[in-house]
Amino acid sequence: MTNQEKIDAIVRHKDNVLKNAIFMGENLMKLGGQWESMGVMLIANGYIHDYSKFFGIEFEQLFSGNTDKDKMSMAISQHNKSNMHHPEYWPNGIRGMPDVYLAECVCDWKARATEFGTSLVDWIDEEATKRFNFSKTDTIYTKIMFFVDLLCDKPFKKVT
Q: How far is Cα 88 from Cα 14, in angstroms, rounded to an integer?
């Protein structure tokens, strides 16, 4: 992958997250009350999402071509600890995330699912639950699915 292709991939991802944040943010604003200000904040977060990828070890590792696992691990750790939409940023993990960052996290996951051609809900159910240690019966899962519902279209119903 050329450096230009790497930059294009980062920009495309940031654009996808921004589109998701705007869409979800507008849906939150329609709910009114406390959700309105959260919707505005989510849209603002969309504009600065993954800003850290253009600096420091994250940028250096991406463009160095270095496959050293320790350096890659440091870059990922730096990214997760520099961006509030990552559960790893918070001392109490995903359960400690303020709602606006959890919503941005869902926007991020949706962007990645779209980019990889995979199912967001399947990834949440099969991977996120393990990675972030929660289950479908946890309150955090209910919150996540609330944000998923604000972001994703409903499947078509079968015509009988």
A: 20
**Nearest residue to 102 (alpha-carbon basis) of 79, 83, 86:** 86
To 10 degrees, what angle do helices 56-64 and 3-31 make? 140
Select from 150, 152, 121 the least CA-distant residue to 42. Answer: 150
Q: Name the residue among 11, 19, 1, 21 with its Cα closest to residue 54.
A: 11
On whether the CB atoms of residues 21 and 108 are closer than 8 A, the answer is no
pTM of the model: 0.92
Pull the structure tokens for residue 154: 């409903």
Per-residue pLDDT of the chain (160 residues; tens, 9 = 90+): 788 888 999 999 999 999 999 999 999 999 999 999 999 999 999 999 999 998 888 888 887 877 778 888 998 999 999 999 999 999 999 999 999 999 999 999 999 999 999 999 999 999 999 999 999 999 999 999 999 999 998 777 777 6
What contacts 99, CB < 8 A, 6 or more positions away?
Answer: 38, 143
Residue 116, SS3? helix
112-145 core/surface letters (b: 16 or more CB in 10 A; e: else): ebeeeeeebeebbeeebbeebebeeeeebbebbb
